[in-house]
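Today's session is about reading a structure prediction critically. Students often jump straight to the picture, but the first step is always the sequence itself: look for stretches that repeat, for charged clusters, for runs of hydrophobic residues. Only then move on to the predicted structure, which in these notes is written as discrete structure tokens rather than atom positions. Here is the chain we will use throughout the hour.
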Amino acid sequence: MALIVQKYGGSSVADSEKVKNVARRVIKTKEQGNDLVVVVSAPGDMTDNLIKLVREITDSPPAREMDMLLATGEQHSIALLAMAIHAQGYDAISFTGPQAGIITDNIHSKARIKDVQAGRITAELAKGKIVIVAGFQGMTEDNSITTLSRGGSDTSAVALAAGLDAEMCEIYTDVDGVFTADPRVVPEAEKLDVISYDEMLELASLGAKVLNARAVEYAKKYDVPLHVRSSFNETPGTLVGKEVENMEGVSVRGVAHDNSQAKISIFGVPDKPGIAYRIFEAVGSAEISVDMIVQGIGRDGKANISFTIAKTDLEKTLQIVQKIGAELGVADIIADEKIAKVSVVGIGMKSHHSVAAKMFAALAEKNINVQMISTSEIKLSCVIDENDAEIAVRAVHNKFIGSE
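Below is the predicted structure for this chain, in token form.
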């Protein structure tokens, strides 16, 4: 008998018929002799609708109360799914994240899981019950409800799989698996049968929405096998696991794009030690994550610094940078929300030459200007104008995937 953790996203439980469909899939897995823990997200657009309601009331909601509200979305799903399973003749019990023993730090809306105290879950599994757990949420050590970052139900599922030593963590979504690009942008994108943790982590962090980046990081750390598949058919999906030798045969495994970032450029920064630290220490202390950074040397002892952050952090970041800029006497600060990041990812990039030249050629052929560049051993990213994003993705995908 295997222990399996399954996770179903909001689109999979968006209405009563879909909840019943998930219940049937869960029961089928149970009938195969498995112990089963099921993690679910809030139904459909409920989380977005709750956020919209908040904005009708205040522009500055207390973070603790925001988490208290958003955590209710998943409670709808767990109760309804447990009821649907009961209606089909099987025993199930639902738990919120705190009831399931998911312990987090105290950073509201972006909490990180510190521990999984799964004793209550294992006790119910021993009784033969299917355990349903609310994703995206946990509890601090002083009993405050927290939520993880968006897409955090994936992380909840992987953390539970690690804590329970599950044989497999199955991530059910509205697509058939992990594709070489977003099929809505590149219709000829191919489904991957297998992908390494490192490749999946890069793709997830670079804009591929099929898996949460933190979940992949957690899975790699605790060696949790992932199976990404559709909740609407029985087609095998994509297995995410350890790197194997033949993965290096292909230079690029996938193309990702991200329209959720903004760029801040600071002109006329004093070119001397400690200035960059002063800027980014202040940004980091505000719990703002910086992605790409480019510094160029200007004239007369001045430099220009550009960096990208999430659009949702733009206003907060600008306030910080403008304050420091005034103290430093910089020439100008410009924010640009109309950017996109296009990236190629592949373990094979370590052993294949001219990946950068090939990507730049694809963009040049479409007359697309590159604003910023970032590289690692297995990825290459370019910041471009957001209006060129989809054209760029198709061009780059055709240049690499279409020719291999």
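Discussion point for the tutorial: The CA atoms of residues 159 and 218 lie 7 Å apart.
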